[in-house]
Amino acid sequence: MDLNRVRELEGVLERDGALVIGSMTRQRALERGPEVARACPLLAEAVRWVGHVAIRNRGTVGGSLAHADPAAELPAVASALGAEVQVRGPRGDRTLGAAELFVMPLVTSLAPDELLVSVTFPRKPPRTGHAWVEVARRHGDFALAGAAAAVSLDEHGAARDARLALAGVGPVPLDASSEAASLAGNELTAAAIEHVATRAAGLCEPPSDVHASSAYRRRLVRVLVRRALTLAAGRAAADAG
Q: How many CB atoms lie within 10 A of CB 45?
């Protein structure tokens, strides 16, 4: 079934403090859209790591999410930001969170007669910074491991909220926000960030394959989480300044 001419599934709309993206919106449109960079900078940053320009010109947002590759960038970003997908079928519409959508590698909770029609990302709050970091064997490859981070600061410069998700280290994107939550109410020191990075590495159970061992991926997680949270914290401070 070809959905390319279903124009109702395309487009980016800011609505009720959120960014609503049609499932057939090209990934390249997210990369180049000023409204995406303004409202959801983590999404704009991460999508640049998806394959190559030729791939992003044809690849769609809904296609990446419905494909459910645990090493892909967009599923991890959706998990980190608490995005919701809107699904339509003969029994009506329903809304799913990322944790409900992704079941196992390349498998979602969509029924055979359901269609993912859009995804909603929350708008970036004030005094918030985001970061996406990953390691791949070659530019354009799926990540051996990746980390998406979001950090919000209070008026005193301490962490108000922190979210974290990992790619490539399990059967689905790993929401590690429970570990990042320990930063809330504290100064974002190197020691505090290192503590979260260590906990996140211990939380995941990465696979071993021809590209990397489980131990190597776990070590990558610690490094990438540290980098992502540090970068996000710096951007949050700049946004607050």
A: 20
Ordered DSSP codes for the chain: ---TT-GGG--EEEETTEEEEETT-BHHHHHH-HHHHHH-HHHHHHHTTSS-HHHHHH-BHHHHHHHT-TT-HHHHHHHHHT-EEEEEETTEEEEEEHHHHEEETTEES--TT-EEEEEEEEPPPTTEEEEEEEE-SSTTSPPSEEEEEEEEE-TTSSEEEEEEEEESSSSS-EE-HHHHGGGTTS---HHHHHHHHHHHHHH--PPP-SS--HHHHHHHHHHHHHHHHHHHHHHHHHHH-
| pLDDT score, position 65 | 98
Amino acid at 235: R
**Residue 241 pLDDT > 90:** no
- Tell me if 121 sits within 8 A of 85, measured CB to CB: no
What pTM does this model have?
A: 0.96
Asked if residues 196 and 218 have their Cβ atoms less than 8 Å apart, the reply is no
Cβ pair 78, 62 in contact under 8 A: no
Q: How many CB atoms lie within 10 A of CB 238?
A: 10
User: Rounded CA gap, 125 and 155, in Å?
Assistant: 13
| Radius of gyration (C-alpha) of the chain in whole angstroms | 17
pLDDT at 117: 98
Q: Which residues contact 235 (CB under 8 A, 6 or more apart)?
A: 129, 130, 131, 151
